Amino acid sequence: MHPTTWYSKLAKSAARFCGRPRIFVAALGIILLWAVSGPLFSFSNTWQLIINTVTTTVTFLMVFLIQNTQNRDTEAIQIKLDELIRATRGAHNALLDLEELDENNLQEFLLRYERLATVARDELARGQQDTGTPEP
Q1: Is it the case that residue 6 has pLDDT exceeding 60?
Q2: Secondary structure of the chain in the HEC alphabet?
Q3: Domain ranges in the chain?
Q4: What is the pTM of this model?
């Protein structure tokens, strides 16, 4: 099995598992149990070290799982948006794959669409429709 395949499967499964309400309740329960056990262990350094180590380790690992899930979701959304642009009559195919452009080119597209939005809002204010293709 390819390394990215097993990791993607693991990340997806872990994200689904950890995102369940009962897992949150279980984590909250562990923290409460730890807090309540403080007097039993005289609030020792070891008692504090346990929660610090566990939470740091879990947080460290979860960052990678969350990032993997976020990357996958973002890529899927981009592909879907690209397909909608590609399949829509009159849409600008130059908008496909915008996320890969450098900052300057992306800024040019942004300014162009901000101008289109301003014109559309002005037309709405004059009682006109803001639908259709504003380009000649």
Answers
A1: yes
A2: CCHHHHHHHHHHHHHHHHCCHHHHHHHHHHHHHHHHCCHHHCCCHHHHHHHHHHHHHHHHHHHHHHHHHHHHHHHHHHHHHHHHHHHCCCCCHHHCCHHHCCHHHHHHHHHHHHHHHHHHHHHHHCCCCCCCCCCC
A3: 3-93, 101-136
A4: 0.65
